[in-house]
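Input chain follows. Return structure tokens only.
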Amino acid sequence: MRNVLFLIALFLTGMGELSAQDERTIRIQVRLSGQTAMADVTVALLKKDSSLFRTAITPADGKVAFVVPHGHDYLVQVSRIGFITRVQPVPSREDENEHVIVHLDTAATLLDGVTVRAPIRPFVQVLPDKTIVNVEAGVTNAGASALEVLERSPGVTIDRNGQISLKGRPQVLILIDGKQTQLAGTDLQNLLAGMNASQIAEIELMDMPPARYDAAGNAGIINIKTKKNRQKGFNGSFNAGIAQGRYPKYNKSLLLNYYRGKVNTFFNYSFNTAEYITDLYALRTYYRPDGSVSSYLEQPYFTKGFGNTHTIRTGIDYTINTRTSMGLTLTGTALKRDARGRATAFWMNDMFQADSTIVTESHNTHRLKQGGVSANFRHAFSASRELTADVEWVGYSIRGRQNFENRKIMPAGNIDASTGDIPSSIGIFSARTDYKQTTHHWVWETGLKTSRVNTDNEASYLMLQGGNWVPDFGKSNHFLYRENIHAAYSSLAYNKNKWNVQGGLRYEYTTYRAKQLGNQVNPDSTFDRTYHSLFPTVFASYQADSLHQFSISGGRRIDRPVFQKLNPFVFIINKYTYQQGNPFLLPQYTWNVELSHTYRGMLTTGVNYSFSNDYFSQIFLTDPATGTISYTDGNVGRMQNLGVSVGLQLSPVRWWSLSTQADYNHKRLAGYVGADYYARSINQLSISMNNQLQLADGWTGELSGFYITRNQNDLQEVLNPTGQLSAGIARQLWGKRAVVRLTARDIFYTQIMAGQSYFSRSEEYFKLKRDTRVFTLSFTWRFGQSVQSQRQSSGAASDEINRVGSGN
């Protein structure tokens, strides 16, 4: 351990002070024909021989900066879909207070005079290290939740349990504004389902994150970035939507921002409410030791629920001087779910003849409250050296309640009932600091992070016995958990001529202690674990010419057991199905490598391979005496994945922007569940497609969808093909200050989750339907100083550019 720490310290400090004497800063601003700053423009800094030096994407103010060595001449190339690409030389001046101004012209057409149409903001932007989904650019995202936006993002799939996969691989780390939620399973699914898309600026998809990010996430990281307006003056927007599926849904949001002088204040609020359903059919088949069928259990189950979510995000940013700034952000969430269900269990013999019938009435409630505060600090020592620091505390209060009543209908029998309170609390503290230094062709980054998670989970069950409610100590428990993670990293990037190379090393030290308090049936138990490891990452790209770019990346990652899954308490699904935690889960380690090629910046093809040890999988344990199935998680063995991906971003004509991605995976899973050995292999394909259409007279449209073939993430469960098609149309009003959208999601009601689960001497077919076919009408109104300045600008397209830019 001492030697490892010494190596880390040597790696972090051995770089020394990189010289910044022979460098200058090239500052570039991109503007529309007049004076309007342009966001989301790709800026490429080229050497005199036209080889690529560096690239950047412009923010809302249209400004980017590159630190370069003295004594070299450069060209700047700016491009964006719907505009004429422009290349111009960079003057060799020394005045760093001035910007090189680059003006873009739209690809306009002449119709009865001069008609300038606003460009389509790209729904997807593919960068060398990540893919960016611009949420507001998708018409069908109006009125959608964060979970629904994710499932329409390229390479992202979501299974029936809400598990998110990226490029066909599960175990993705979900971040919101760069911070971990520390939630998993139903809690994470409820949080994302209650988060309105109107709050989100963009989603970053990183399947090979660099060393400065947490090493968690076998398949990579998805970072959901919320909106934060940086336009001068007072600005805001209001959004309201009404949706109708099988049951109605409503949403509204308000975003306010005031930026004057050195102070920027913001306030975001959203409210979602919806009625929802879960329509589940399951047929379980039990086998004798000789393989013949012994009995069947048919379980139709229908749940109707109601829920609402309130979220608030507010804060202040203060610019102390041109080099130093700081900020404070407060967040809050209040989420409520209330569901009532009815399930019928038909027991049948091997001839499908009914033996008995049991009806279960259920009433489940779920309440989640979250509050958080974070502070950030940034100081630039010079144009090439920067220090940032962040401190955050987040608290969750979660309270669930379950009520079940089972009645025998045939033959008539007594009532069997249970009720349980499941409160829990989570406290999260994290702090990090990062240092970045740029010189000549080099960029050096290093940093430290520490985090602590404390949880208190209690499950108190009662059962009906002789007409009286008595404690059910077999299901009740009290679980305490504390986890600490300390990390240090350093990375070095080199960019020269046609090469861009980056290498990083991250060290993470983890310790946790868990305690299960006992009762009359279960004794006290305590378990703890300490482990640490190094996580290298590497990335290299080669710009062969103006058409072709090759890259290779790789790294090692970890998935720690989520503390909710370490908790061994029993969660009742129905009379014959339970879910239970596993305190003996170990971390899962994965090696990833990918080779890719990009043609003309629009066609990206790649081959990737990953290998996981102690692979996480949902497993199913059978009680032969009662026929009860218990769902839990375990380290089953290993998983290998060979993948091929193809992504295309194309504008066939000026008014049509197409983005599509296809991911093929060949998976091999092998491991033990108890004494039973399972070996599975599967070939699966997922395809996503998005068409953004710029129509006449302020109309825009979208046609999007996704499809995934038969697929598998867990050792004992295979999912059938599923997919959906969505469409939408939008109209700008009031001089582009307002937008009305009409969308239809899952038009043909094809997003059905079905599949087969395999247990010890039994198997189950299931089919799950939710209220996914939804029609939404939404209205967005933008107001404030930025809107007024747009009306005075020259050119109709400048209004739209400023409008979409202000959302970030």
